[in-house]
Amino acid sequence: MAGFSDQPFRRVARLFGADEVVTELISANALVRENRRTHDMAAIHEGERPASIQIFGSDPAVMAEAARRVECLQPLFIDINMGCPAKKVTRNGAGSALLNDPKLAACIVKAVVGAVKTPVSIKIRTGKNHQSKTGLDVARLAADAGARRITVHARTVADAFSGPIDYDAVAQLRADLPQMELIGNGDIHSAGDARRWLERTGVNGLMIGRGAIGHPSVFSAIKRGEAAPSVESTATILQHIDWMEEFFGARRCIGPLRGHMMYYSKGLPDAKRFRQEVTDLEDLKELKELIARYFDQKKAAQCAA
Length: 305
Ligand SMILES: Cc1cc2nc3c(=O)[nH]c(=O)nc-3n(C[C@H](O)[C@H](O)[C@H](O)COP(=O)(O)O)c2cc1C
Description:
eight-stranded parallel β-sheet, globular, single chain, alpha/beta, binds flavin mononucleotide, TIM Barrel
């Protein structure tokens, strides 16, 4: 997820039971231009493998070249984003705009598959809107073009990030492509959500996005048959901060750290005051002390309740 699934967050997700992870979407154009920051986004830490790299773009030749450039990082899959509805992605014909042009989508898959030995996957939505389920056409053409895995966010582009999950569309895809590795995605926060997804669609695996922000232990909780705890342990949060510091450096990690603290504290008592204090402090050591104090108190209060 753009702005969240950076390397430190992916390491925490793996530590807490995610079987594999994927980078946020990375611009193929920027990779080909050798943009340093973009290359850092694709870097995979040994502790997060297996990890896939997701790229976006609309030019088959540029996408193929970007895939060639990241292949040496040994991703599990090179994943092609065909689901992002953000204007800055779709206005150039990439992301979910590809659902309007299944032939171009298939052409991109074919070019990337031809360029690398790494297996290629795609991430789609069910379609443009409920009248036009072109995601299913894109999936079939992508399978013919050599895609080895398809992840479906079971909503249309028009739905954005809310509204009911369209299990039937995914079940249809399952029936159409019985050999394809299918991964289901959307609104998974608990073991009950995961069970419903598996029973209603027959997908091979599940992807969790927003459910992991502020709750990285959701993966292990679901494997135990539970929902994520409302408060993560202080040790988890401090581990996440240490990895942010390692990856971004002590100064640059403060921005992402503040972002994650908004989510770790969501719904907790005194969250407003805590967030203000996190915003006011500039020193990483003081921030860590504040964060440890706050979450120790919340965990203790939760255990006592
Ligand atoms: C802030 C944010 C950033 C996202 N960035 C990406 C991305 O970079 N690549 C991608 O495939 N999906 C991205 N998504 C979509 C999620 O991966 C996922 O498909 C969607 O949120 C539904 O699943 P969820 O209910 O588990 O979050 C993003 C979603 C959000 C909310």
